[in-house]
Amino acid sequence: MLLLEGISRILPNLNLQLDSEKPNHPDEYADLRQYGQKITSKQAEDRGIKSTCGPAPPPEKCKYCGAPLYYEGMIMPDLTNDRDNAPPPWIFRWTNMPIRCTCPDAVKHWERYDAEQERKRLEKEKEQQRMWHRRRVNDLLAKSGIRKRFQQRTFERFKADTPGRKQAYNAAREYAENFAIIKETGDGLYIEGTNGTGKTHLAAAIAMYLTDKEYSVIMKTSFDLLDEIKRAFDDAYTSEHEVMKAYRECDLLIIDDLGKEQCTDWSMSILYSIINERYEAMKPIIITTNFGAEDLIRTLTPRGYGCQKIESIISRLREVSQTLTMAWDDYRSRQEE
């Protein structure tokens, strides 16, 4: 007990003695210990800061007031966290330009310079964005199945020169411009009409408009769609599952000229599978066809089979689609479809 009391009386005095042995002077480089500190060549010379990257470039003069403009040195940060034994900081790199003068004329000059540099930076950024957008659009076009001829069928090239064509144009344009909402509701278009009335043109215009907005669109005739799936069965590199998945999952599927394909139970089963899965997933479809609903059912029903499956396909399409009827004289005489 007496021993403990003696130690307790000695320890405070011992701590005071140890503290008194520590160097009691401020760190003259404390302002340079933090990461990212810079110092002018003049300040480095005055404070004895050495450089490991050679001497500083000679100072320049302000072209407006003649004041000396020194280069700045980047300070190597203190990595030891031991301020008592840390070596003096040193310069590991000099800046490429001297410090800026603060005289009024120099300030105006640098304001103009900075504004121009910012303009160039923004323009370069926009150009990069345009480049990436173009690459993305080209990639989407390559996967879209839109033939080169139909890539020219834009809204701007559609002749809305009669009340009927103007009404069809407005409906298609409105569909494209509101696709961000339509994509969530799953609404489609059922475009019916006779040959050469512009059905494919408007469908392609929607496809090109949305592709430019970076939506994934597939546009194919029903014949080409089914043919691609058939070929996938014999393709060692592409499976029919991958092809079907693309049709089921793209943002918009456009089936052009429905009713011109060869009608078999297999082909109707494939079409039903694609349309039904998109219907259940609320993914939009656009159909173009030369047939009205009843004629299309008769056309698509394979010989020797019932029409229930075809009726289901048409029923689902009509349920979620706005119908555009384009019934007028052949418009290819003035403009190809």
Automatic annotation (TrEMBL):
Gene3D superfamilies: P-loop containing nucleotide triphosphate hydrolases (3.40.50.300). One of its GO terms (molecular function) is ATP binding. GO terms for biological process: cell division; DNA replication. Pfam families: IstB_IS21 (PF01695). Keywords: Cell cycle, Cell division. Coiled coil: none annotated. Residues 185-311 form the AAA+ ATPase domain. This is Cell division protein ZapE. The gene is zapE.
